[in-house]
Queue: 2 jobs
Job 1
Amino acid sequence: RFISVNDGIDTANEQNGDDLHISLKNLLNDTYCRDISVKIKSQLAVKRKRGDFVGAFAVYGYKKDSDNKNRLVRDDFAAGVVRDIFRLKLEGVSAGDIADRLNEEGVLSPMAYKKAEGLRYATPFSPDGEGLWTASAVLRILKNPVYTGVLAQGKTTAVSFRVKRRVEKPGAEWDVAKNAHEAVISGEDFEVVQKLL
């Protein structure tokens, strides 16, 4: 049974459910959804190319600017943790040992920190829900060029407006903006860490 209150359609009533009318409405609605999807994608692409941040949550070490939500500003506490992680790696400490040190010192992981800041944040990277530092969390930070002031976005795309599954895009198709925000780590230190990794 199909009921559409606004259109006055109820398929339980034989005189009320005109199949052609319903099919035509569905076709128009589908076209409208596709058109909206294209417009939203193109607007987000313009913002990414301009160097605006379009994510829901800022990456660990940054927060959204209170005056402009499309701009990242440094979060002093988290940025200090990021600098410590890079310093330890430059001293030759492994990612697992860095994670252990952070846990021993009681430093909140990125997920726990965002929740402590009052953000409604969920991540697939911590299935246990405890939010402890792990080697993979440390490696994600060490490999992320955002800490050098580079904003790389548009790494994935939806298959279509009907299918929500995301697919990875090749690196050449990413939207990369240099000097988009204040750097936490120098480009030289970042390159040395990448060689160490």
Note: The mean pLDDT is 84.
Job 2
Amino acid sequence: LDDRLLSQLQKQSTLPKRVELASLGKDGRWILLAHGNEATGMASSLLAPRATLPTQPDTVDIAGREYVVQGVWLDRAERSAPVAALLGYSVDEALRPYRSVALAWGALSLLGLLVGLVGTWFIARSVSRPVERLAAAARRIAAGDYALADEAASVETPVRDELGQLASAFASMSRSIHEREARILYQAGHDQVTGLSNRAAAEAEIERALAAQPDAPAALLMVGLGRLPDIIKTLGHEVCDRVMRQAGERLHEPVRGGGIARATDAQFSVFLPQANRQGAIATAFRIVEALSEP
């Protein structure tokens, strides 16, 4: 049995590509008898002197390549020396058909990961941007900037969405706070009966005007209704409020370019910026004439 005959046997049967025949001598040494189509050196690598034949499949490394090797004792005549066949299967060749499948699965996994990352980025962006705008609106409300807060609260989110409902509720809350604060500020600086500025607001306005033009002339007139306590005693507070409201309305005609405020319960203040003495007296006469009408 030589290499040529063993190669023919491989072609005519299902023997693996790597087959080596070795004989065990009387001295315990293995002798390579023949190899098939490819000489892999399995016998020289595995069958050292007095080595045991690996009759169970085992994975071994031969010349840097991985093989599954199994030894099989062959039938022999009584006078013949023991002969064994080493069958080798290349792990690389066995896995080659599956590498394309592995590459395909790897590519699909990578594509799925990329799609997942892009989808996660879009979802996070669609969630984080409205939340960031709501947070910015909250900071602007804390700073007292309600106009920009209303604009920031108008998040481009579907109304049915939870963020859209939150943004809508936040915008409604912002407008309510803005209106309530504006109403409180208005009430703090205005008289509820006449709608004119109160004494505190008038003093602040006078201080700002004098600070802006400290050298310019100015005049302050005090207009009082002397018999207002008698009206309260005889006709009541409701008629008194009507008198003060109508008196405040009449002051707008003679006072042009000045600031009118209710200084006390029975007095109005008229601030005339850049008015000299003659101008102040002329305005005072016009006020008396306006209030002389029944």
Note: The chain is about 55% helix and 20% strand.
